[in-house]
Amino acid sequence: MGNKEIGDKVVYRQKPPDLHNHYKDQHTMDQVLIRNLIARGIIGIKDWEREKPQEILINIILFTNIRIAGQSDDIRDCVNYRTVAKKVINHAETAERFTVEALTSDLAEICLEHPGVEKARVRVEKPGAVRFSESVGVEIERTRSK
To answer: Is the dihedral of CA 81, 85, 88, 90 positive or negative?
Structure first.
């Protein structure tokens, strides 16, 4: 299905993509990273998993705009990753969720509570949970409700 030239005009057999709106909707956001955060909490459905805390590996990307913080050099204009990390660890260590999916959803919501965070990508893994694997886990992405 090629295009057809008529004089100096090109007639498209299919409508060409609207690149302006495509790129406008996919504007680049800055990212704040929290990598390889380790919590120890109760997670799992098996009886032995509910008896003692196990390692939970958490990785987070917070999508935000750091332009003002980059110019002001003032912590009040930043997403405070220390505060986010403390809340995430506290929840992971006390929630006693049965599924990684539920814990991951909880943590994404905690991230979105912070001013300036528009979107969060959260990965939660259970190291050693499955034989012959380093870890198993879930990764989700959630956006702040407007």
So the answer is: negative
What single letter denotes the amino acid at residue 137? G
List the CATH number of the domain containing 40: 3.30.1130.10
Q: Are 100 and 124 in contact (CB under 8 A)?
A: yes
111: its two tokens: 């991230």
pTM value is 0.79
d(CA 90, CA 82): 12
- Bridge partners for 55 per DSSP: 40
Q: DSSP character for 20? A: H
Between strands 30-41 and 9-11, the pairing is unpaired
pLDDT in tens, 128-138: 889 899 999 99
Q: What is the pLDDT of residues 60-101, one digit of tens each?
A: 999 999 999 999 999 999 999 999 999 999 999 999 999 999
Task: Kindly state whether residue 133 falls inside one of the protein's structural domains.
Answer: yes
Question: How many residues would you count in the chain?
Answer: 146
Q: How many domains does the chain have?
A: 1
Q: What are phi and psi of 73, to 5 degrees?
A: 55, 35
